[in-house]
Amino acid sequence: MPHYILFAVVSVLVVNLYSVAVKRIPNKLALFFWTNLFTYVGLVVVYFLRTSTGSAGAHAVRELVFRYTLAQTPLYLLYAAGFVGTMVVFQRLLDGYDLSLVVPLSQFSIFFVTLGYVALGVKPAWQEVLGLLILSPGVVIVSLPPDALSSPTALVARVRAVPWPLWGLVMVLAALTTVTALVTYLGTKLTAHTMAVDHALESALHVNVFFLDPFHFALGAQFFSVLLFLGLLLAQERDRATLLPAIRHGGKLYVLVALMSLLANLAFQEAFALAPDPTVLLVIDKMSIPLVLIFAAVILKERMTAPKVVGSGLILVGAMLVAMY
């Protein structure tokens, strides 16, 4: 088995545990901020551990500040906007709906991200297309109430009755996820298409893209995500008032969630760096659906309905079919 698949599987497992822990914490935005701040600190620590010490220490600091952080601020700000927006929408979904519903529905983003990768030169195989066609009805079915599969008439009626706020949040989440995925690809994959985008940005906006490995790109992206997240929380009086109490009362759980976030981040970066086609990583992520159902039922005591099981199964089959190519 290729190493990038192992790294991707580790990332998926940790993210699922992370999602269960987040579901149980009331003040999710504060948790997301502290988790991302701790993750950034962890990335910086790993960065300095990877660089040489002594006389090279000052050089490492300059590289971190000017090359890996400030050199492509516009690109990082775009990533940060998409990432922080994703956290806000995800928080609203978790507060309003079951985890076993939110996670499968969030897989809808694979369509937009795949189209974006195609636009950047990634050519999907026929298995990918077929897998997406199988996955798509699963995303719809998983959102339906328990009795929706009793008959074709009931299925049609229930599809029409799915709350529009739910689908609205899912679509916004998919769009924001696409932004972060494509910005990451643009900043880390040196291809003819990304070079063409770089030249277009330089001509139109005088913005240069510096192609970095996923770890160094994550350093800059995470820095601006933390800054933007802090600005968002400070702008809201309620969030500002709970920011410090949240970390004081969160204690060990906050530290555990932060460590899981850092581990998932590092594992995904390694997978992204090694994978020949990033779409495969999207597909492996969809294989987390059975784990979500198990965790939600055992830990969160959420009810497992027929649509959740059938829809999640279709998502899993479609994802595995794509991974096989």
Key terms:
mainly alpha; 80% helix; 325 residues; 0% strand; 16 helices
Q: Biggest sheet, in brief?
A: none
Mean pLDDT: 78
The N- to C-terminal Cα distance equals 14 Å
Number of strands: 0
Helix count, DSSP H or I runs of 4 or more residues: 16
What gross morphology would you assign?
A: globular
Q: How much is the radius of gyration in Å?
A: 20 Å
Bin the helical content.
Answer: over 70%
How much strand content do the residues show?
under 5%
Structural class label? mainly alpha
Oligomer: single chain
Query: Which H/E pattern describes the elements?
Result: HHHHHHHHHHHHHHHH
Low-confidence sequence ranges: none
Would you kindly provide a written description of the structure presented here, covering whatever features stand out?
- The chain has about 325 residues and is an all-alpha fold.
- The chain has 16 helices and no strands.
- Helix 1 packs parallel to helix 15 and helix 5 (about 100-105) packs antiparallel against helix 15 (about 290-300).
- The longest helix is centred in the middle third of the chain and has 25 residues, at about 165-190.
- The protein is globular, with a radius of gyration of 20 Å.
In short:
With 325 residues, this protein is mostly helical. It has helices at residues 3-23, 28-50, 57-70, 73-96, 99-106, 109-119, 126-141, 152-160, 164-188, 192-205, 214-235, 237-250, 252-274, 279-286, 289-298, 306-324.
